[in-house]
C-alpha cells in the first residue's frame, strides 16, 4: 500500500502570520475553548519552537484548575508538541545522510544552499534544528538541481491518472455522446483495515475504532453494498454524516495486535461538466450556498496576503468561470510535496500560500479560500484514489459552484495537462475520473458515535481513528491498509 506522505510544516521557528486564528484552531481541533491570553501564549510558544517554555506554561495554567474547555486546549497543545516532534525527527546529520543516499558525492555547500532555499523543511525546537522526516525525499520534488544530481533517479510513485490517460478520453467521449455528466462507471470492491500495535492498550481494555465508509452521492457514487467486517458487530453512521464511518469495539489481547476491517462494494462514476464561459453568471447567495461562501476559520481566512495573491492572479477579470480558471492555474503552479500532519497547522490555506509547496489538501483549501474570496462557492471532498494496477493513495479535492451549471469538479493537485488537446488538458477543472472514492463531503466534522478523545487527524478522515478509555491512539500506535479491486461489470440497477 502507498500511504499518504505526512503533511508539510513551517520551515523555521517563525510565528504564524495569523496568530489571531490560532486559538480558533485549538477550539476546532480540541473542543470549545475560551480565547484566553494564556492559551494564546502557549500556542505562540509552540509555534515558535519554545517547547520547554510551553510545557512550563501549561503546567502552571493547569494548577489553577481552568474550565474544562481550557484544560482541553492546553492538553492539546502538549499533544501537538509531541506530534511535531514525531514529524521533525531528523538531526542535520540525519538529513544529510538521507540525501547522500541519493547523491553519494553530496557536498556540504550543496546541502547548505538547498537548505537556505527552503527546500529542506526544518524547525528550531528548544534551540536544536530538526528536519522534517520527509524533507530529504521532498527535496527531489522541489529542486530540479537536486533531481539532476541523483545517482540512480527513480520515478515518483504518482497516480497514472496525473498524466493523460485513456480513461480521461473515455469520460469526455461518453459525456459528449450521451449528454450526461455522470459517465464511465466502475464497480469496485474496497477493503480497508486498521491494525493496532500489540500491547498498545492493556489486555482486556476495549479498543474503539472508526474506519471511513462512503455515503451515497447520486451521480457520483451509488449502490453501496456492505459485504463483511471484522469484528462482525459494527455500526455504520447515518447516510447524512458528512464524515461517515463504520464503528467497531474490540477487547485487546495480550501480546497480539487488535485488527479491524470492513469490505464493501460501490459504483463510482466519472464526471464531466461542459462549461460555456459566456453563459456563466455570478452565484446568487442562498441558504443552500451560504455554507460554501465566505470565511471559515481557521483554515479559510481572507488575509491581506490572500487578497493580494487573488488580485495578482485574477486581474480585472469579472467572469466567474474565467476567474476560477486563473485561480486554478495560480494554485496549480505551487509544487506538490509531502506534508506535515494537518493537526499541527494553524491555518492550512494560509500555510499553502506562504510555504512554497503544498500537498493535495493544502492546495485544495487554498483554492477554496481564493474562490470564496471572489464570491464563488467552493466545498471540500476527499477520500482515496486508486488505479487498475497497484497504485492507491489518500487524496483531497473539491467542487466549485458556477451558475447556471451547478457544482463543478476541481482537482488542482492533478492540475492541467500539456498534451495539446485543450479539452483533455483542462480535464480536472470540470471533470473527474471514476477512480476515487469519497469519504468526506466536508472537513473537521463530528463522528457518529462521537469520539471522546482528541482526533489523530483533525481535518480529514481517510485512515481512520482509534481510541480507548485511556485516550486517543495516534498514528504511531497503529497502521492501516486500503485495497480496491475493480469488478467485471458495474451495477446498472
Automatic annotation (TrEMBL):
What is the designated name of this protein?
Transglutaminase-like domain-containing protein
- Please name the Pfam families in this protein's record: Transglut_core (PF01841)
Cleaved signal peptide residues: none
Please give the InterPro entries that the UniProt record associates with this protein. Papain-like_cys_pep_sf, Transglutaminase-like
Identify the domain of life: Bacteria
Q: What is the lineage of its organism?
A: Bacteria, Pseudomonadati, Pseudomonadota, Gammaproteobacteria, Steroidobacterales
Q: Where is the Transglutaminase-like domain?
A: 352-414
Per the UniProt entry, what species is this protein from, by scientific name?
Steroidobacter flavus
